[in-house]
Amino acid sequence: MVTTTVHLLRHGEVHNPTGLLYGRLPGYRLSERGQQMAELVARTLAGDEGAPRRDVVVVTASPLQRAQETATPIAEAFGVALGTDERLIEAENHFQGLRFGVGDGSLRHPAHWPYLRNPFRPSWGEPYVEQVDRMLAAVDAARVAARGHEAVLVSHQLPIWVTRLALENRRLWHDPRKRQCSLASLTSLRFEDDTLVGVGYGEPAAALLPGASQVPGA
């Protein structure tokens, strides 16, 4: 049996002073803290933070700037070329470029209400099943490329989360507030040959998460 691990890494914190739902819009870079998160994840995977060095031979990212910037220090730490895979991109969303909410947000405009009619698909953006299909295709390609070693795929919260739900045979529609996929977190898929045998989750940048310093013992 050959063991291969594919890590799904959510990008670090994004510089977004206006609070827009940026989605697939270009030009959204990591914040200073987001850059620190990316560097900390790279050091952790490389064994410089007390954890064992991982056997990473493939690093691939979504084409969006925030994912590329998160992946770069990891590729550099392991001396591998950084790849790009469109299948890892953020989910398409009707509310992209808007403030999502009531008050001064987009939900106060009736023109947007029809996009909220079906939360199970969801009606406001790319169907969950389509996100899962493309993400699993990217995972499979990485598993083959990194056979017997480890791969890191840098993507976005929603695609990573619904992929995990699918692999754990859970329903895809969910409460976004209950996603276990924090900034710069790792959802790790362990395969024996072609069979998924385990799903793990870790937060190597937990100390840098917003509000972490307010948690006792953090």
UniProtKB/TrEMBL annotation:
Q: Which PANTHER family match?
A: BROAD-SPECIFICITY PHOSPHATASE YOR283W-RELATED, PHOSPHOGLYCERATE MUTASE
Which CDD domains does this entry report, sorted A to Z?
Answer: HP_PGM_like (cd07067)
Q: Which domain of life is it from?
A: Bacteria
User: Which Pfam families does the record match to this protein?
Assistant: His_Phos_1
InterPro entries in UniProt: His_Pase_superF_clade-1, His_PPase_superfam, PGM_Phosphatase
Q: Tell me which species this is from.
A: Cellulomonas iranensis
List the SUPFAM superfamilies.
Phosphoglycerate mutase-like
Q: Kindly provide the name given to this protein in its UniProt entry.
A: Broad specificity phosphatase PhoE
Residues of the signal peptide: none
